[in-house]
Amino acid sequence: MEFVNVDVRRARFEAIAPVVIDAVRRYLARRTDAATADDVLSETLMVCWRRLDEMPAEHLPWAYGVARYCLANAERGRRRQARLTARIARLDPPPEAVAGPAPAGPDLTAVLAEMRPEDAELLRLWAWEDLTPEQIGVVLGVSGNAAAIRLHRAKQKLRKLIERAGHEESTEGSRP
């Protein structure tokens, strides 16, 4: 018996949906950007499906009301996001890009690319993110002691690769 009810419900929704979709899409297009309109239309249709039994015979004005509330929610979310972005920019502004001197020695990016990805990530977490071995352990899901040991080994590998790369650069122009 429940299958009949679902089929009847689906048939009613499928009969109403094309009219609602076209009308609500136009309604939203006049009020917001295309991406937000698509998101709000989807949300409106979900509400219409969930509350199909509450939908009156004149379904279009009711659907406009649902779309209006969904659009208001989307706009509140967008305003919250804009306030949060502005607050983050005030509290932690991005650093100014300043051209520095040309690096002397081997290219660190190339040297890191030669390392095992796990070792390179350890070094990035330590140097770029300024994490302690204990914090690195949390990121990697290992103990702080294990992270410290791995970091020490990764630094040794990096040192050797830099020395090798520096040696290759210094002998590149000389004759054998």
TrEMBL record:
Domain RNA polymerase sigma factor 70 region 4 type, chain residue ranges per copy: 108-158
GO cellular component: DNA-directed RNA polymerase complex
Pfam families: Sigma70_r4_2
InterPro entries: RNA_pol_sigma-70-like, RNA_pol_sigma-70_dom, RNA_pol_sigma70_r4_t2, RNA_pol_sigma_r2, RNA_pol_sigma_r3/r4-like, WH-like_DNA-bd_sf
Record key words, sorted: DNA-binding, DNA-directed RNA polymerase, Sigma factor, Transcription, Transcription regulation
Matching SUPFAM superfamilies: Sigma2 domain of RNA polymerase sigma factors, Sigma3 and sigma4 domains of RNA polymerase sigma factors
NCBIfam families, per the entry: sigma70-ECF
PANTHER family: RNA POLYMERASE ECF-TYPE SIGMA FACTO, RNA POLYMERASE SIGMA FACTOR HI_1459-RELATED
Similarity annotation: Belongs to the sigma-70 factor family. ECF subfamily.
Entry protein name: DNA-directed RNA polymerase sigma-70 factor
